[in-house]
Design a protein that fits this description.
The chain is α/β, with parallel strands linked by helices. The chain contains nine helices and eleven strands. The chain has a domain of about 200 residues: Glycosidases (TIM Barrel, Alpha-Beta Barrel).
């Protein structure tokens, strides 16, 4: 009997976990059902805009993109796609009827291989002259000017120096700065004033400043300076007869001929030139005449 009771006790002990689990399962509370809530919707700013406004906005974006694409990728190149009336050289179609070619450079062209560049004097449509940026405003000098100006003469190019006009800086200070930094010699071009920006000046104020710089240079160097300006800028702001006495260097790209009806001396016809010795693209120019006529305007 004792043995049976002992066996029964052991059996209960072994079955206890199973009984407990059944009791827990029996009395386990069911979880409460969660209330269904509608998902929160974020307010969409564009959803409140009328459809016609969205369409108008989209059309505006497409228009701006199209204009930008045309300006940067289409406008400069149709001229190169057309049949070349002149001859091809330096990566572009050179204007027909102008035998004297040249370039203008600044720090944007980086380090120049002058020995390689000099080889362009011995090829068809050779480069004869080089203009270089010397100064800007009243205190900014081009850090490549001194070396380039020296090397140009050493390698037999006709050389010139130009000043980039700043509409904000006192014009007397600009003239003094150019004279201080540029020592022109016999055989060099007259000084050049590059005028591209009106700034806050009125047309009258701009013309007064330009005339001051030109007359100051003529008095100092003993030769009439050259005016550089785009076709549009010249006709809009420098149309006074006062400027007709000075040689005009016109910037007019991607056209077969100059539209300007007045007298001009140099024509910057492209900014896409590829010239041996210069890694970056370079501006290309022609002189309106023969080489003998070019030499007549040099400092002597």
């Amino acid at each position: 009997m004792v043995i049976l009771n002992f066996q029964f006790s052991i059996l209960n002990f072994l079955l206890m976990p199973i009984q407990n689990s059944k009791q827990k399962t029996k009395y386990r509370k069911k979880p409460k059902a969660r209330r269904k809530t509608k998902p929160k919707t974020r307010k969409n700013f564009f959803g409140s805009i009328p459809a016609w406004v969205k369409h108008l906005f989209s059309l505006g974006i497409i228009f701006l993109f199209s204009v930008s694409f045309y300006y940067h990728f289409i406008r400069p190149y149709p001229y190169f796609w057309k049949p070349c009336r002149g001859v091809r050289g330096y990566g572009v179609c050179l204007p027909d009827g102008y035998p004297v070619h040249g370039i203008d450079i600044s720090h944007h062209q980086g380090n120049i291989d002058w020995y390689e560049l000099a080889k362009n004097k011995e090829i068809p449509n050779p480069i004869r002259f080089i203009f270089m940026k010397a100064t800007e405003g009243g205190d900014l000098g081009d850090n490549t000017f001194a070396r380039n100006f020296y090397q140009a003469r050493q390698h037999g190019f006709i050389r010139g120096a130009y000043h980039f006009f700043s509409p904000k800086t006192d014009i007397k200070k600009q003239a003094d700065f150019f004279i201080k930094n540029v020592k022109l010699q016999s055989g060099d071009f007259p000084p050049v004033l590059d005028v591209e920006v009106l700034g806050n000046n009125t047309k009258t104020e701009l013309q007064r400043k330009v005339i001051y710089w030109l007359t100051r240079m003529e008095s100092h160097y003993g030769v009439k300076p050259i005016i550089y300006a785009s076709y549009k800028f010249k006709t809009d702001y420098l149309d006074s007869p006062l400027f007709d006495d000075f040689p005009y260097w016109i910037a007019h790209y991607y056209v077969d001929s100059v539209y300007y009806t007045g007298k001009w001396t140099f024509w910057q016809h492209s900014d896409k030139g590829h010239v041996a010795g210069i890694k970056e693209r370079v501006d290309l120019n022609v002189f309106n005449g023969e080489l003998e006529e070019l030499e007549e305007i040099l400092i002597n």
